Amino acid sequence: MRFILTEDYEELSRRAAEIIAAQVREKPACVLGLATGSTPIGAYRELARMYREEGLDFSRARSFNLDEYYPMSPDHPQSYRYFMEKNLFSEINLPREMTAVPSGDTDNPPETCRAYDAAIEDAGGIDLQLLGIGQNGHIGFNEPDDTLYASTHLTPLTEDTIRANARFFSSAAEVPTHAISMGMGSILRARKILLLVSGKNKHEALKNLYHDKIDPHCPATFLKLHPDATVICDSEAYNG
Ligand code: GLP
Asked: What three-state secondary structure class fits 212?
C-alpha cells in the first residue's frame, strides 16, 4: 500500500484526478470503477475541468459504480445513479450507455448481482477502482462483519452507516435499509486501487490501514492484500 499525504481536500482531489486522468490517457478504452459519497466530488470536478480545458477524452472508456441503495429508483435525487449523473457523467464525454450502476429497483437482486459481476468480467475487468471509505471502514457497502462477501451482493446497512448517510436525506428513517454493493473480490480484482480518505471523521478508519492486520471489522484493511493500492489522505484525516 502506498500512502500520499496531502495538505488539504483540494490537493487530495487534484492528485486523485491526475491518477485517474493518467489511466484514461494511457488506455483510452479503460474500465473505471467509480465511487459516490462526498469525498470523490472534488476529483470529479477536476476531471470535468480537464475534459473541458485540456481535452481529456472519456469517449472510449466505460465505468462500473461500486454500489446503489436498495430499494431505490435511479431518478431519486439520493440515488447513486443520480449522483453520478450530476457530479460526473453530465460533465464529461463518457457515453451514457457505457456507464453502469447497480440497479436499485430490480425485482431480482440475486440475478442483478450475478449479472453485474459478469458484466465487469466481460468488459475485461476494472483497470482502476476509485474508493472512498466509511467512518466504520466500509468500502462500497461492504459493511464490517465477521465475514465479508466476495461478489456483488444485497446487504443490509449498519446503524452507523444509516446514521452517517442520513445527512443526505430528510431523516434517518428515509435512508434505505439495504444496498447492492460490489463485493471484496469484485473490488480486489481491479488492477489498480485508489482510496481517498478525507476529514477528521475518517481518522480512526485510516489508522487501521497503517498496521499489518487485516480485519473484516474494517473491510478497507483487505486492500493491504492488493499489489497496486494507493491511499491519498489529507492532513485532517491523518492528524485527526
Ligand atoms: C457511502 C458509500 C461509500 C463511501 C462512503 C463514504 O456509504 N457507499 O462508497 O465511500 O459512504 O462517504 P463520504 O465520502 O461521503 O464520507
From this structure: coil
